[in-house]
C-alpha cells in the first residue's frame, strides 16, 4: 500500500535563514591529545583508532565506508576496510558553553516527544514512530531522528531560495528497512538537488562478510548470520549558475550485532564543496564553518579530516581533486558512542550555514555561455569520480536489490565531455585547475 507523504510549511523566511547562516558557529577552546593518543594515515585517509580498556572488550577494526554508502544496504556495507591496528583512545574536548537557546534545543532533541519532532520532517520516518518511542534512548533512534531532521532542515532551506518543491519518494527494502528520497529537479536555482535518508537492516550478505573478514575484521556470527543496522543521510546539490558551487554531504551510522549479543558500531561522514570557479572568500567561509564545528570536539579533527577528504575525493586518472574538499571521516568509535554522536550532530548542523550563504551571495551573478560550458566539463569530472572510484556507488550498482535511482541521485542532470579540453593559461578556468591539482589550506 502506498505511504502517505506529508509536506510541512517552511517556518523561516529566506532572510532569516541567511542571517542565521552568516552568523556561523561559536569558536571553541583548543585542547590537546592525551599522552599516547595518536593519529594514523593509511589507505585513503587518516583514521583515528581506538583500543578498549575494559577486560573482555571486543576488538574493533577500522572499517572504511564510502560517502555514498548509506543509500542501500549493499552500499552501506560496501566500502568498509578492515584494519587490525589498535591505538590508545584520545580524549575529546569538552563542549563549549551552551547558550540558553542551544540548551533548550538540546533538551528538546534528547527528551522531546518523538511525534512532535516528526511533524517537521519531509515524511514520516522509515522506522515506525511507536518503535522509535519505545527505543528512544537507543543510538539507532537518536541517529534516525538526526538524519531525518538534517534532511528536513536542508530541504526547506533549499526550497526557500529556489521557490520549488522537493518530490518526496518513500521506498521499502524487502530485506528490511527503506528510505526517503527528496529530489528537486530543474528548479529556478538548482538543476538537480537530492537529499536521501536510508535506514536498512537485516543480515550481512556473505559477500559483504567475506569482504570484511578478508581485510582483517573479526566478525563472530551465529549460525552464519550477522545482524546489522545501517542508516545515513546523503545529499548532492547541482546548481544551474556556474558561480554557485556543487555541495555534497553524508553522515551515517553502522552497527553489527555479534553472536554473544555485543555490538560493534562506528560513525562516518563528511561535507565537501565543488566549485566551478575559485572564490577565496567562499572557500574560507565553507572551511571555517566546518573547522569551528570540529574544534568543539577535538583540535585534530579538522586538519586530519580535511586531509582525508582531499585524499578520498581524488580523480586519479586526471591527477586532480573533485573539488576544494571539506572534511571526511570514517570508523569513528571513540571515546564513546555518545561523544561521537555529538560530534556527528555538530557536523550535520553545518550543512545549512556552510552552504546557503554562498548560494545567496551568487544568486544573481550573471554568467556567459563559455562559463556554462566549463561548468558542464567540471560536472563530467564529478561523474567520473562517482562512477569510477566511489566504493559505495560501484558496490551498489553491482549488488542485486539495490535502489539504482537513489544511488545515481548524486549525478548531475547534464554534463559534458570535450576531447583534449585544456583551458587557456592565465584564465579563471586554469586557476581552478591549479587548485584542484594542488589542494590548499583555506583556514
Automatic annotation (TrEMBL):
Pfam families linked to this entry: Coprogen_oxidas
Cellular component aspect of the GO annotation: cytoplasm
Reactions that this protein is recorded to catalyse: coproporphyrinogen III + O2 + 2 H(+) = protoporphyrinogen IX + 2 CO2 + 2 H2O
GO molecular function: coproporphyrinogen oxidase activity
Gene3D superfamilies: Coproporphyrinogen III oxidase, aerobic
Classification via InterPro entries: Coprogen_oxidase_aer, Coprogen_oxidase_aer_sf, Coprogen_oxidase_CS
TM region(s), chain numbering: none
Its EC number(s): 1.3.3.3
BP-aspect Gene Ontology terms: protoporphyrinogen IX biosynthetic process
PROSITE patterns documented for this protein: COPROGEN_OXIDASE
Pathway assigned in UniProt: Porphyrin-containing compound metabolism; protoporphyrin-IX biosynthesis; protoporphyrinogen-IX from coproporphyrinogen-III (O2 route): step 1/1
Keywords assigned by UniProt, alphabetized: Heme biosynthesis, Oxidoreductase, Porphyrin biosynthesis
Oxidoreductase in keyword set: yes
Record note on quaternary structure: Homodimer.
Family: Belongs to the aerobic coproporphyrinogen-III oxidase family.
Protein name per Swiss-Prot or TrEMBL: Oxygen-dependent coproporphyrinogen-III oxidase, mitochondrial
Gene source species: Nothobranchius furzeri
